[in-house]
Amino acid sequence: MDEAELLTRARAGDAAAFDALADRYRGELRAHCYRMLGSLQDAEDGLQESLLAAWRGLPGFQGRSSLRTWLYRVSTNACLRLASKRPPRVLTPDHGPPRSDVHDLGQPVTGPVFLEPWPDDVAADEPGPEASFARRENVELAFVAALQHLPATQRAVLILREVLEFSAAEVASFLDLTPTAVNSALQRARKAVQERVPGPSQQTELSALGADGRRELIDAFVAAWERADVDALVALLADDVRFTMPPLPAWFDGRDDVARFFAERVFETPWRLVPVQVNGQPGFACYQRGPDGRFRTGAINVLSLRDGRITRITAFLDPALYPLFGLPEELPS
């Protein structure tokens, strides 16, 4: 059934037809909500609120724009309403200074504070190699984190104009602004994001490594981690590497402190790693062996690179993330 017929039925109150319409855009709308809110779980809330608002507002849809454009308008405003009720998500260095005592990690920070990772296998945006490259750039951790530092309206403008390529006039209609105000907000947002993410994107770094280089780096990281080989692991790190582990407030800055943390805390027990793609970047689902010999959820680690070296390891410790990534909570002994 084509979109026009589904739309006619949905406007007449056919919930199944509306669900079929929504399924065509669900993935990209979820990605939009993630960029707006910085959390996969918040993105699900945003998506559900968006679709509910769209269902209720469908009788008023006059077809002056495409259905996709109208859904983005509804979704953007749903996310803005949610964003007004919640603090912006941040990375650990935005929450407090680094620590040098590897035995003082602090207590987990409660509440919706930290940015959450995005699983690459969640369908989003448009298919094709060029679109896939751009999509992954636009969910990279540093970019999404920078977005959260923008005022919510600037965040929406940047995403709608730069990521989704809506016109200034369209964005103005979404947000009840003038095109001049949209362009002004876009300039300020661009400047702020460029200051926070000044270097090449992770997709550019990964492309420079090539397929063989990426495979070698991933294999070396897994082998060193599973062997608890601190020297081999440290050899992969940049001098200014940072290791963070939300929701714990502690983080370590520089290769020496990170190496000491590995040696004295991380490898007290054995690990197994499962490579995954997270936010368009190399990642690993890490499983730690317990006293009973079983390997259970430990952290989802995300690597950021510069010139072939690891500059950031973000270890998301929340076990609730594993099912969202389609990962088991336990590996065979």
Automatic annotation (TrEMBL):
Q: Which Pfam families match?
A: Sigma70_r2, Sigma70_r4_2, SnoaL_2
> Residues in domain RNA polymerase sigma factor 70 region 4 type?
142-192
Q: Does the keyword Transcription apply?
A: yes
Domain named RNA polymerase sigma-70 region: which ranges? 21-85
- Which domain of life does the UniProt lineage start with? Bacteria
Among InterPro entries, the record links this protein to: NTF2-like_dom_sf, RNA_pol_sigma-70-like, RNA_pol_sigma-70_dom, RNA_pol_sigma-G_actinobac, RNA_pol_sigma70_r2, RNA_pol_sigma70_r4_t2, RNA_pol_sigma_r2, RNA_pol_sigma_r3/r4-like
One GO process term, biological-process aspect: DNA-templated transcription initiation
- Indicate whether Phosphoprotein appears among the record's keywords: no
SnoaL-like domain: which residues? Answer: 219-313
Keywords, A to Z, come to:
Sigma factor, Transcription, Transcription regulation
Q: Which SUPFAM superfamilies does the UniProt entry name for this protein?
A: NTF2-like, Sigma2 domain of RNA polymerase sigma factors, Sigma3 and sigma4 domains of RNA polymerase sigma factors
GO MF: DNA binding; sigma factor activity
The UniProt subunit note reads as follows:
Interacts transiently with the RNA polymerase catalytic core formed by RpoA, RpoB, RpoC and RpoZ (2 alpha, 1 beta, 1 beta' and 1 omega subunit) to form the RNA polymerase holoenzyme that can initiate transcription.
NCBIfam families noted in UniProt: PRK08241.1 (NF006089), sigma70-ECF (TIGR02937), SigX5 (TIGR02960)
Family, according to the entry, reads as follows: Belongs to the sigma-70 factor family. ECF subfamily.
What name goes with this protein?
Answer: Sigma-70 family RNA polymerase sigma factor
